[in-house]
Design brief:
Helix content: 10-25%
Strand order of the largest sheet: 1-2-3-5-4
CATH class of one domain: Mainly Beta
Strand content: 35-45%
Number of strands: 5
Distance between the termini: 59 Å
Number of helices: 1
Shape: elongated
Length: about 120
């Protein structure tokens, strides 16, 4: 029993070292550190309403049914499928989009750019 446990621990250590070394060797340098991309379909769009205290937001769902909410701020750029800038009102539920975003210190996902792909 002790021998089996020792072998199992040894194998797990070796696999861990191999995984670590492979991960270190395959990391590509980030083009924009701190930025990430989320690709999916628009689930909802909320326009800012200062009277109600709401902010502009877009909710996107990907193919694995992961849902993310992105805050749309003044510096967020929005594009249609042709690459032309558009307003948030032109993005609707069902649009396929690529969202480039940053995570704030408070854990909020802020959209840097949203591009409609379909």
């Amino acid at each position: 029993m002790k021998r089996s446990l020792s072998i199992l621990v040894g194998v797990l250590m070796v696999l861990g070292l191999i995984s670590f070394s492979l991960a270190q060797g395959t990391q590509a340098p980030a083009k924009n550190p701190g930025r990430a991309t989320f690709i999916g379909t628009v689930d909802s769009v909320t326009m800012a309403d200062p009277a109600k205290g709401t902010k502009s937001e877009i909710v996107v769902v990907n193919g694995a049914n992961a849902k993310m909410s992105f805050l749309v701020i003044a510096t967020t750029t929005l594009y249609n499928a042709k690459g032309e800038t558009i307003g948030l009102d032109k993005i609707v539920k069902g649009n396929a989009v690529n969202v480039e975003y940053e995570t704030t210190a408070g854990g909020v996902y802020e959209a840097v750019s949203v591009k409609v792909t379909k």
